[in-house]
User: Which sequence fits this backbone?
């Protein structure tokens, strides 16, 4: 029996009708100007190959996560509540086994009482380091909020510095890659180094995220010099952006937040630590207390959401990566400096930085993101002081989970050269609208290229 030929002209006609209907909705319901829609469409066509690359990463990671679920026999019984101390919580045990399987580590802590990424990093540092030990940050200064934990900024109350932990840092090279010779030199100058650290994501700095390949070289160098030195990575914003994670390439311990990549937008709060069993044990004693460690800790009914979010995370991260790449391409096409530039750079986190050049532009960009948000779209972001930050910060985050940066958001400190940081998006279509809305706001306010 002969096959009926496919009428490609008919498909093209249907696609044109649907695209026109969507454009009309964007103009009518969201106030997006036709000029902005055309700019975004033009840049989108240039990203086909990059989007295909991201899809391959998503596919690999989705199967990796699924295998961890099946390998650890996740069952409906793991979603049940526990109470009190949380002893023998089967759901808590299985989620930590799943994380350890995905990240190829001996152990993990995945808890709702880890309040954010900074907290996950703080218990990691404070759990392992002792008075007289030295830590070296090998990617320049740590993220703003962690600087108070270390004792670089702030009152120092309860900081590592107050407890007698010494601190050094190695700056990145001019091309913003890890300075391995600088690390070697720092290790030769100090015989009290217990831990070396890398912040994978950009934070509020102008650089590409540190790639896993660079991290592999760094960990290899450090362990060749002294296998007892602990390599720690701040993995926030980096999970599932490539085929490998830092713990796949020699890193001893890493930490991150569940309201970023691995929570998949469903985790209501929490953080994780994954790595060597002995290190996770030490960290668990800081998370709770000596003698208790990881044995207690109520999950407050969050296990289902955490597991489901982790399962969906590769697809959510894929959407966020595509949105970030589109943001970079659109603003680069208008003459702005962007970081990373997906036409030349390897993306290793979900953040896109745009150098807007004025505080007004940063505020309006964030206003456009807020206006395109599903929650509190009517709120106008205003710069304000925030704990842990030296400058006023403007944030747009109309999210289902407050402060969730795997959901579409943007933020930036109001300091020269006035950079805005865009990240997240549970779906690509939403991230796409966010880019349009930010550009639309700047276009209407006459703030483009100022």
Assistant:
């Amino acid at each position: 029996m002969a096959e009926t030929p496919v009428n490609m002209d008919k498909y093209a006609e249907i696609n044109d009708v649907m695209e026109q209907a969507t454009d009309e909705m964007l103009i009518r319901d969201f106030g997006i100007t036709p000029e902005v829609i055309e700019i975004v469409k033009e840049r989108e066509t240039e990203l086909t190959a990059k989007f295909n690359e991201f899809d391959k990463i998503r596919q690999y990671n989705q199967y990796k996560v699924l295998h961890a679920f099946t390998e650890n026999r996740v069952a409906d019984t793991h979603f049940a509540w526990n109470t009190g101390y949380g002893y023998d919580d089967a759901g808590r045990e299985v989620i930590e086994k799943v994380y350890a399987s995905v990240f190829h580590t001996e152990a993990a802590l995945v808890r709702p009482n880890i309040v954010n990424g900074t907290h996950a990093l703080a218990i990691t540092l404070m759990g392992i380091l002792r008075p007289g030990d030295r830590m070296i940050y090998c990617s320049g200064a740590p993220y703003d909020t962690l600087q108070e934990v270390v004792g670089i900024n702030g009152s120092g109350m309860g900081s590592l510095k107050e407890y007698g932990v010494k601190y050094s840092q190695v700056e990145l090279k001019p091309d913003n890659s890890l300075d391995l010779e600088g690390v070697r030199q720092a290790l030769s100058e100090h015989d009290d180094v217990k831990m070396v650290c890398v912040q994978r994501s950009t934070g509020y700095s102008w650089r590409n995220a540190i790639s896993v390949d660079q991290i592999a070289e760094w960990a290899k160098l450090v362990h060749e010099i002294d296998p007892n030195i602990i390599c720690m990575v701040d993995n926030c914003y980096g999970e599932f952006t490539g085929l490998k994670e830092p713990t796949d390439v020699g890193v001893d311990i890493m930490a991150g937040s569940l309201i970023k990549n691995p929570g998949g937008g469903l985790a209501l709060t929490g953080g994780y630590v994954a790595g060597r069993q002995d290190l996770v044990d030490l960290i668990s004693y800081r998370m709770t207390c000596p003698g208790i460690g990881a044995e207690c800790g109520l999950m407050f009914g969050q296990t289902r959401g955490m597991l489901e979010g982790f399962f969906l995370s590769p697809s959510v991260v894929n959407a966020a990566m595509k949105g970030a790449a589109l943001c970079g391409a659109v603003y680069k096409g208008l003459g702005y400096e962007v970081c990373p530039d997906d036409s030349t750079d390897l993306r290793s986190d979900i953040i896109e930085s745009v150098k807007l050049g004025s505080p007004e532009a940063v505020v309006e960009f964030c206003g456009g993101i807020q206006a395109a948000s599903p929650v509190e779209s009517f709120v106008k972001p205003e710069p304000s002081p925030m704990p842990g930050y030296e400058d006023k910060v403007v944030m747009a985050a109309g999210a289902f989970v407050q402060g969730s940066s795997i959901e579409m958001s943007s933020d930036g400190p109001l300091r020269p050269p006035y950079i805005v940081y865009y990240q997240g998006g549970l779906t690509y279509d939403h991230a796409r609208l966010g880019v349009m809305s930010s550009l639309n706001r700047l276009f209407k306010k006459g703030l483009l290229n100022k």
In short: The mean pLDDT is 95. The CA atoms of residues 351 and 423 lie 5 Å apart.
